[in-house]
Design goal:
Length: about 400
């Protein structure tokens, strides 16, 4: 864009960057943000200040402009990197940031030397480009080296914008190193306008990207919260088994499949014998420990396709898809034997036995409901209790 002089570019850049800084500040003050966003916000403010000192060098004086603008541009690059490191957590011990700070300090040292000691514009451009380019490239690449950074597509866009500007800055520095001595940086530095214009648009992309990252993190948290709430709604907190409501939903699905494909399906209900005595003698904490251990043993014993639920109190349910009544009876006997050997408390006198009721889904075309299936299994369970407990009864 040869028609744009430096003053025009400067005014456009300052207005746009200042507006972006205000947007980020407003978001930081009024919205939920995450580690790193404050660094990005302060960094954007530093970029605005640095650009002011750079573009208005004729009015502010060369010395003030060189000292302030170079320092602020370095701080900007450090804050952008720090924000990305904090957001993704890939530099927990700040070692990478310390290296960046070292590079920035060395670069500024050479820049100031080549103004205060030996006045050399080309060398100032070279060391500024080297420092900013190094930190910028690390800011572009390091987030993509961690899984979370690759997970967000917008990070690829941010990294691309940072990398483009950083590469152009480094090229500018290399060209300055080999070029004849500049006496007028604005008119003799061939890549300066390109770098400034690309930086202007790159900054818009980066700021929009940082805001998008915030929104993406908020959305992730909302989805995680919804998943946790759903899990709490579906799970018995004591045993970790699905609760009765969720079990009923899963059963309806499996019954539909069984009827559609003509497969068997069976239900086991079992109740711990004399459980009230454990609560009365050892306390409810001991009773809870027994229930949790029984649930764990059941999950270890049944197949992965089976569903175990806490039916209520000390009563449990096991749904066995593609299993006929005989297969369910054998599983019930196996569970009965395992529970008999179980010693869930340190007191070896505490034994856990259970009474089992088994029923298979009616396959006579009657379309038996789950409620009817559960009632038949429950009737068998109570028959087992009446007949002396610690046994398996099967529906006729």
């Amino acid at each position: 864009m040869p028609s744009l002089d430096m003053r025009t570019i400067g005014i456009i850049a300052l207005v746009l960057h200042a507006a972006l800084a205000l947007v980020m500040l407003q978001i930081y003050l009024t919205r939920k943000t995450y580690p790193g966003f404050r660094s990005w916000t302060i960094g954007q403010a530093c970029w605005v200040a640095a650009s002011f000192f750079f573009y208005f060098r004729p009015m502010l004086g060369e010395m003030v402009s060189i000292v302030a603008s170079n320092a602020l541009y370095m701080v900007f690059s450090l804050l952008i990197y720090n924000g990305l490191a904090r957001f993704y957590g890939f530099d927990p011990h700040l070692r990478k940031l310390a290296l960046n700070i070292g590079v920035a300090v060395v670069s500024l040292g050479f820049i100031y030397w080549y103004r205060l000691g030996v006045d050399n514009v080309n060398m100032r451009i070279f060391f500024q480009s080297l420092g900013l380019g190094f930190i910028g490239l690390r800011g572009a690449l390091d987030p993509l080296l961690v899984a979370q950074g690759r997970r967000y597509q917008i990070q690829t866009v941010i990294s691309g914008a940072l990398a483009l500007v950083s590469v152009l800055v480094i090229i500018r520095g290399v060209l300055a190193l080999s070029a004849p001595m500049y006496t007028d940086m604005v008119n003799q530095d061939g890549l300066l306008r390109t770098v400034l214009i690309v930086s202007l648009f790159s900054m818009v992309i980066e700021v929009c990207g940082f805001i998008t990252l915030m929104h993406a993190r908020v959305e992730d948290e909302l989805l995680d919260t919804q998943a946790r709430l759903q899990e709490l709604a579906d799970t018995d907190s004591l045993t970790g088994l699905v609760n009765r409501r969720k079990f009923t939903e899963l059963v309806a699905h499996d019954i539909g499949l069984a009827r559609r494909h003509g497969h068997a399906l069976s239900l086991i209900l079992f109740d711990l014998d004399h459980f009230k005595q454990i609560n009365d003698v050892y306390g409810h904490a001991a009773g809870d420990a027994v229930l949790a251990e029984v649930a764990r043993k059941c999950l270890e014993t049944v197949r992965q396709t089976d569903i175990v639920a806490r039916w209520g109190g000390e009563e449990f349910a096991v749904l066995m898809p593609e299993t006929d009544q005989e297969g369910a009876r054998l599983m019930a006997r196996r569970l009965r034997e395992i529970l008999r050997e179980l010693r869930p408390l340190d007191d070896q006198a505490v034994r856990t036995t259970a009474s089992f009721g088994v029923a298979e889904l009616g396959g006579d075309g009657s379309g038996e409901s789950f409620e009817r299936l559960a009632a038949r299994a429950d009737a068998c369970l109570y028959r087992a209790k009446r007949e002396g407990r610690d046994r398996v009864c099967v529906s006729a």
